[in-house]
Amino acid sequence: TLDALTLQPPDPLLSVIGAFRADPRPGKIDVGVGVFRTEAGETPVFRSMKAAEAVLLETQRTKAYLGPEGDIGFFEALRPVVFGAADPGARVFGLQTPGGTGALRLAAELIALARPGARVFLGTPTWPNHPPILKKTGLQQIPYRHFDPQTQAVCADQVFEALDSAQAGDVALLQVCCHNPTGADFNLEQWREIARILGRRGVLPLLDLAYQGLAEGLEADAAGVRIVLEQVPAALIAYSCDKNFGLYRERTGALFGVAATGEAARIAHSNVLALARAAWSMPPDHGAAAARIILEDPALAADWRAELAEMRDRIVSMRELLGMIDPAFAPLARQHGMFSTLPLSPDQVRRLREEFAIYMPNSGRINVAGLTRGNVEAFVRAVRSVM
Ligand code: PLP
Ligand code: TYF
After folding, report:
1. Nearest-10 Cα torsion for 183, 184, 186, 190
2. In terms of pTM, does the model score above 0.95?
3. Which of 43, 104, 106, 127 to probe ligand 1 with, by most ligand atoms within 8 A of CB?
4. Cα 368 vs. chain centroid, distance in angstroms?
5. Start and end residues for every CATH 3.90.1150.10 domain found in the chain
6. Does ligand 2 have an atom closer than 6 angstroms to the CB of 33?
7. Is 366 in the pocket of ligand 2 (CB under 6 A)?
8. CATH fold of the domain at 2-45+300-386
9. Phi/psi-derived region of residue 213, left when phi > 0, alpha when psi is between -120 and 50, beta in every other case
10. What is the pLDDT of residue 10?
């Protein structure tokens, strides 16, 4: 049976990790995979997380199964961070998932169960894992242009036009903040227009929130969710804690659903539980348990928020520095989060790797958190020299 398989290409983002590691050149620069890095080039465990893990080690009395929902306390503690004052009460359902990826996959499965082969409107370029997840669940993709490489900004008119061509029962997969791979987010005015269109057309929003707190702040970064919820009866939110709690390999996330009524939420909830059971049965506990301890403790939560603010400040200052060194990079200062996509060909990306030991995926996406005050000028010079 297995000899019927054919060779598959590796993950274009994760394969940069190994290539960078194998390069012996000092001064090499990794702007590849999307993990936050400090000025020292490290991706440390948060202080607040270390403290929460110590509490967990001390107080955890059992590791007995929790069930397909995972840690309900985690889900409930995260809920106000996502919805704030816009919490739809009994219309909310959901569960803990293995990372944002697990939440996306479960959301896609739920949509496919309700409406097999549903159409999903998807802005391009997007995170390379979005298309395979939709494909695996048999959903149909309707791509449209999200980003204009010339202006380095959202092409809002094309987004509105695409979404306005959707019909009742269609889905729109939208990234809420820190757009991966372009950093080009919707502003509030654009979110309001998108929300009106989704409401008018009867489109189900599938909101991908993987970087809350890394753009402008925890509250500001959830604006898209809250604006959309004012205009639509139902929505799905795939949430990742892997960046904003620094949990990455612990695979921590949640799927939040909002249904039209409490009864519809109860039914949808029973379906996501059944789908989770058939996929991973129960999510891994550690990251969610530690995140819950942070969120439930005012002092730890305050420290967590301060650490997030530090990360955000570093990202913003690297973006500003890029623009100050070379005006061609100035538009990057208006973008959010770790990612930007430079107008580089795969051949130029190869030259940066071979001649300058600068590592990024072939798409020309860079992680600005891989830059430091010490290497940013060399980075700009190298990029300019291959352009
Ligand atoms: N969505 C986007 C846009 C992402 O960049 C990521 C990154 O990992 C995810 C979802 C999934 O996050 P996780 O690592 O928690 O699965
Ligand atoms: O886009 C990124 O770099 C992050 C990390 O299969 C990531 O989202 C990349 C690829 C992948 C899972 C996570």
Report:
1. 180
2. yes
3. 127
4. 16
5. 2-45+300-386
6. yes
7. no
8. Aspartate Aminotransferase, domain 1 (3.90.1150)
9. left
10. 87
Q: Which residues are catalytic?
A: 127, 208, 210, 243
Query: From ligand 2's centre to the CA of 105, what distance in Å?
Result: 15
Would you call 37 helix, strand, or coil by DSSP?
Answer: coil
Q: How many angstroms is it from 263 CA to the middle of ligand 1?
A: 30
Angstrom distances, CA of residue 127 to CA of 173, 295, 310, 363: 11, 28, 25, 11
Residue type, 319: R
Which residues of the chain fall below pLDDT 70? Answer: none
- CATH 3.40.640.10 maps onto the chain at 54-296
Q: Which residue type occupies 200?
A: R
Beta carbons within 8 Å of 161's beta carbon, 6+ residues apart: 144
pLDDT given at position 159: 98
- How many other CB atoms are found less than 10 A from the CB of residue 333? 17
The per-residue pLDDT for 12 is 84
CA of 173 to the centre of ligand 1 (A): 13
Residue 15 has what pLDDT? 86
Supply the pLDDT for residue 13: 87
Q: Quick check: helix, strand or coil at residue 90?
A: helix
Tokens of 73: 């306390």
CB distance 43 to ligand 2 below 6 Å: no
Domain 54-296 has CATH 3.50.50.60: no
